[in-house]
């Protein structure tokens, strides 16, 4: 396991008490012999960015006044003629980074526009903050809890290339079913076997599951960062699909946790000479990686989604929330399944939630009500369409806004479909609306349906227009314009 001079990753080291004020951060630095403070923030597509400062820079002024950076070099942010931006660290997010050799304290920051003298409208974290504020102002509830289930792959190697004269990707994994015939092993021959067959990777013990210890190291790293973890396990797909489940938290806090989660997974895997990816569908013919999002609304210690007499023990308010999710799902997909690759996942037959329906227990429905427990505290909706390529700040905020719109308008979720929707007769299946079939369709839906996001100025028209333009210019068009390898299989001899 990784160590640096002041931190050792050990079981049981979960720290629930986080700093709350700048003075707490200063004390944390002194007590742990910190030498570097790493300031982190999220670009518009959802990738962490950072730079590091030394101890003389850690003053109260850093927290109150911020520190400058070039916003024109960050995806989705400013143009070059308006590039000066500020970062203000949030002391409540500080954690000691167990993956760095030097003793490093990481702090998540908010982005500030120095000209407008306020929070930057395209800062994804600011959108999440506004969504939480809008919830409280609505009077519906005071807290929205999120519990995302992020799935990801750990491969031994990944190679890819696309240029004027070639295009390919090559995945290597000792767990892959396709490696059952190759020579391997300590003595240069034979095969070690125990490959997870396609769609049969769920819950096997070692030696099938070769990643148990790596996942445990990721768990300890997350706990050291103050994140409570509930379980971890191998997932359904061959070639090293995994899941680590964090305990639920409030919307903004959970979005922060997702960014820390991705960071730890990637860095622990790299330390072992492997690579972690949150790309939704890296393998053809096997299950993809989702980010099923469990959600509930609370007032104090009361779960507003529970009703002992309601369908699946849910309240009418819960069902209206689900109605909002389902009504706005095509537009939500622009933030919740925001890559061209996302729609390789959203196809029938791979536990993918392509059907916009509500159900209890049924994993073929977009909105599932888990029935593991009849406890009032456990009542929630699991929205299964999102995937881990999403920017969590934007995706969580968008889902909350859709749910609140459903509550405001008493939107019915439709009749429950408590059966395998994939096996419905054709005449019944045609009546079930499905998610969009491509990122371009989702962006078109967002263009038509985004009024619910603008309420309370949570999302701005500028952010939505910037998002749509970025996705079309930098993702959809580059994929659309390049020959696909399978087109050679189909058309070369035409």
TrEMBL record:
Swiss-Prot/TrEMBL GO biological process terms: glutamine biosynthetic process; nitrogen utilization
Organism the protein comes from: Ramlibacter tataouinensis
Localisation: Cytoplasm
Protein name (record): Glutamine synthetase
Boundaries of every GS beta-grasp domain copy: 32-116
GO molecular function, one term: metal ion binding
Residues bound to L-glutamate: 287-288, 345, 351, 363, 384
InterPro entries: Gln_synt_N, Gln_synt_N_sf, Gln_synth/guanido_kin_cat_dom, Gln_synth_cat_dom, Gln_synth_gly_rich_site, Gln_synth_I, Gln_synth_N_conserv_site
Cofactor: Mg(2+)
Main subcellular location of this protein, as a coarse class: cytoplasm
Binding site for Mg(2+): 149, 151, 235, 243, 292, 382
